[in-house]
Amino acid sequence: MNKSKSNPLTPAGKGWKEFMEPLGIRQKPKVWNPITGCPNLREWRSYDPKESDDYNIATKTRIIGCLTPSVDGVAHSYCYMADMMNRKLPHIPSAEYCYYPSRLSQPGDTKPPSIVAVGTAGDMWGWWDKKQYHENMEKVASSIKRTRHFYLFLTKFPQGYDWYINYLLKESRQSLSIPFCFSPIANMGFGVTITGMQDMERLNEFKYFCETYEHVILLKWIMIEPCFFTLEDAKSLPDDIFEGIDWVIIGSLTGRHAKKWRPKSLTLSWLVRKAKKAGAEVFLKDSLSDCFCMTPENREKLKAYPSQFYEWAEKQEILEAKA
Ligand code: SF4
User: Fold this and answer.
1) Which atom of ligand 1 is nearest to the CA of 41?
2) Are 151 and 114 in contact (CB under 8 A)?
3) Of 223, 199, 5, 227, which Cα lies nearest the Cα of 117?
4) Closest ligand 1 atom to 38 CA
5) Which of 10, 256, 258, 319 lies 20 to 30 A from 163 at CA?
6) pLDDT of 55 strictly over 60
């Protein structure tokens, strides 16, 4: 028999792996990028008077992504993808929408069930041509079907989720013969990234999506990274800001501009308190470790995981025997 070579998923890098390893679950976190690129990435051109006296000639060109809030009128791109592109590394994808049919088999070719972050090289839920987006996402959904991984989606464009979940629901109704644990919506976490007060509209949009599909979405999560909330912001957030959310992850800006935007430990306390009041589990990333004291005793409190991972692991029988 002619067996084609299997093409397994890539192990998750440090930034993702950190929050994809729930204690007691035997699995190796992975990433999957069937689509790369991001509508928030753009070319930035600037005029340098030392190199040209023609204002129409851009003398410096680089890729920038999402920006920090401005301090003294200056904002900086904090996008890791943009930095990698500017370094012109050969394996880094371009800013444009790119779909890779050859990667569709990867979830099926990776046998032990794993927690898989989808679309980590950009943001695959954005504004692209609808017809193309729908066609490609149908293929993505089909690759996920019947696999046993736990898929984590994350976006700054939660409006992209709506069509997808409707498609999955339609599909699963058509395939009622498939047991629920293999159905396309059983093992998925839908998440949104926010960074501060300027993203409240996005958060509300995501919460509306979560409310609408409350009974079919397994895990609803929020990534607050980089955290640009000030103490005043955190205090002023409504008490029910995280209502309906299962998991909140908070991280700080990293890299050369990190010191300018470090959240205060009191700001974190307010965010954590509001998240816990809403019943969400909270995970504080290591990038915040100078803001709180991590001991083996409080590790579980500061790096908590939602029960959905354990329920999934139990179904897949990949829980470590606990002493
Ligand atoms: S959404 Fe993510 S990938 Fe896109 S520019 Fe912003 S930080 Fe970069």
Assistant:
1) 5
2) no
3) 223
4) 4
5) 10
6) no
What mean pLDDT do residues 217-226 have?
A: 96
Determine which residue's CA is closest to atom 5 belonging to ligand 1. Answer: 65
pLDDT of residue 140: 95
Q: Which residue among 123, 127, 192, 228 has the greatest number of ligand 1 atoms within 8 angstroms of its CB, and so is best to mutate?
A: 123
Using the mean position of ligand 1's atoms as its centre, give its distance from the Cα of residue 319 in Å: 34
Could you read off the pLDDT of 169-214 as tens digits, one per residue? 888 776 655 555 445 567 999 999 999 999 999 999 999 999 999 8
3-state percent breakdown (helix, strand, coil) of the chain, nearest 5: 35, 20, 45
The domain limits of the chain are: 10-38+97-316, 40-96
Question: What is the residue whose two structure tokens read 């629920």?
Answer: 180
- Is 93 touching ligand 1 by the criterion CB < 6 Å? no
What one-character DSSP code corresponds to residue 322? P
Q: How far apart are CA 212 and CA 158, in angstroms?
A: 13
Neighbouring-strand partners of residue 36: 98
pTM: 0.91
CATH topology of domain 10-38+97-316: TIM Barrel (3.20.20)
Residue nearest to atom 2 of ligand 1 (CA): 122
CA distance 116 to 104: 14
